[in-house]
Structures are given as C-alpha cells and as structure tokens.
Amino acid sequence: MASLSMTARSVAGKNVIALRGRPPHELQRISQILDTPPPGSERFALSLPFSRHDATAGVENELQAVVVGSSEDVDLPRFIAESNYYRNVVRRGKTGDGPISASNLLDAYLEENPGGVWENSWVRVPVRCLCSHARAMLSMDMLSDKSCCDSPKRRDADRFCLRENGEEMLRIPVSYLLKLSLADVVGLPDTPDRVRRMGDELMSHFLSDNTSPETFSFFPSAMAEDGRIGSRVAAETQKRFLLCQLLTQYANTAFEWLLSFLYTGSSKTTGAVMSFHVIRHRT
Fold it and tell me: Which residue, 156, 132, 162, is CA-closest to 144?
C-alpha cells in the first residue's frame, strides 16, 4: 500500500507539470483502469476514487428486549426455577450449608414481579409453526460448520431445542426470533422469488445475540450533494427498525402464542430514542 501511494503521488506530481502537454503514460493507464474522464477535464477530479462523493456510512444498532408475562409462562424465570443451580441454592439454604439470603433473593426475583417484566428473556416457539424455508435455515444455523451441509450439529444445539407436553419447541433469544420471522415470512408459498431472495440476503444483517437484538445497515448510505450523510444514515436506520417491528408483529400471529407491543426507551449503544421489543405471553 505504501508503494502504491508513493506511485500515485508521483504520477499526480508529473500531471501537474505536464498538464499543458501530453499527460504521462502512467496517468493515462490509471485513467483507463478507473474509467475516468481525460485528465484536465472538469470532471476528472470528481471521478477519482476516495473523493467526498465516495464517502459512505453504515451503523449497527442494539435494542433492549423485554418479555412480559407470569413466572410460570416466561422462559427466563422458568429456566432459573428448573435449573440445578436454583435447586442447589434452595437446598443449601434449608440445610444450613449456604446462606439463606441467596435463596431468598432468588425467590423474591421469581415471585415478587407484579408487572411480569423480564429483561433479556428468551422465548419459546413451537416448531410446527415454522414453514419449510424457516426450518431449513434453522437446520443450517445449527451446524457447526455452516458452509458444509454434511457438518455435524454444533455442540450446544440441544440448548435451543426441547419438548413441552410432547411438542417440539425452540428456545431462542429475541435476536434470533427476528431472523426466524424473516425466514418464515419470505418462505410462504405466495412470496415472489425476488422478495424471497432479498429476504435471504438481509438475514445476515440480523445478529444473534444471547440478550439484545442487533442489526447493521442493509446498505451503505452515500453522502448527499451538500456534504451531509447523517440524515441518510438515519433514514436507513428507520427503515431497518420498522422492519424489526413488523417482524415482531408477524411473530404474534405466525407463532400463535406470542403477543408483542412497543415501549419507548433508549438504545444502550447510541443513546438515541428507540423502541424496545416487548414480548407478552398470552395467558
């Protein structure tokens, strides 16, 4: 890269001297490769790479996920109550082998939540609700090597699968719920091929995090003619955020037992006013 920069500066220096005559051979060759106007023309400088019109920007956003429901229905309190850790803490507190305060604190967290608000909880989705396209994506995501269809499953695959009342269920973070919703909606039989291809391309922009949903720009935003770029980045972010809300609402219907609504709050990473994803379990 250093030698390339030196060459470019050297060529530019020769160009300044030779503008009145024939441009140097090196500059002509670079101009042909870059498909730029002839050196010395009015648009030559604007057509060069890395000018201000070539500046683009993208962002990554993180949202807070909140699940609302009783401790008997929501995944987080159920997972805690069914864990060996919780049972051991309670047992040690009763036998005097451990502090009773630890057991009391856990019990208070599980039982004294009148609003039923559980931050960063996962959700449980019936597998039967997924279309074949969403199931295929899920099967691929469960492989240890996603580039090889014959790869064995990832070692923690059982963490995301369980059976309840004889039914196969998925236990997933809300971040993956958004991706799963997108795969399911574009996989519906009447979805146009162009929409399905676009949906498949966008799935990689939904990052699976164990707590907060994260997405990054669907496309880089170019600088406006007046040199501003922030408003264009914000417009792209708004479109992406709207899609997240639509996917959350789609999960309400497609996955049957979830209801979702929005609660205004702040993004943890940017401090901008955003909306939380709130999942309410139907009682």
Answer: 156
